[in-house]
Amino acid sequence: MPGLIGKKIGMTSVFSADGKNVPCTVIEAGPCVVTQVKTVETDGYEAVQLAFDDKKEKSTNQPEAGHFKKAGSAPKRKVVEFHEFENELKLGEEVNVNLFEENAFVDITGISKGKGFQGVVKRYNFRGVGDATHGQHNRLRAPGSIGAASYPARVFKGMRMAGRTGGDRVKVENLKVIKVIPENNLILVKGSVPGAKGSYLIIEK
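Above: the chain sequence. Below: its structure as tokens.
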């Protein structure tokens, strides 16, 4: 799907036409530069590579610098491929927030906030043992039994246990675009999106 790379600015709320207070996420969407146009003849598939957010030349290795120079662009931090743009895009062309329309719906992908190593109560909403009649002592948030008896004598793969939580790629679908502000390259999207402030997002039509 066609789309843009954006950056999460934060959350706010706006009043709708019927007076309701609507929670929104503010996203800086583009402008993105076309750094490569892939075709069936040369790459085996059709796609457009967009890049977003300038970075210093000293932080860019030589292959990357040559890639961006070919497109006539400054080095960028984030590069993503998109498919099926309505208009044919050329190398070095800019795509901005005007790609989106108010009251349309978009899908947004981001990396969720990392929460570190967590137990089963926080990670999977277990209730904990919480029953003093079973000889428990100071184990209210324990996972309890994790396996069967002598057969199969192992813990099955995928068992829900304590471990690293968050930091996953998450896609939220059908978020409504409340407002588009072209002069500031901003869009307001109803509801929340994954990731911390300042994190990169992929916004697809």
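DSSP finds three helices and twelve strands in the chain.
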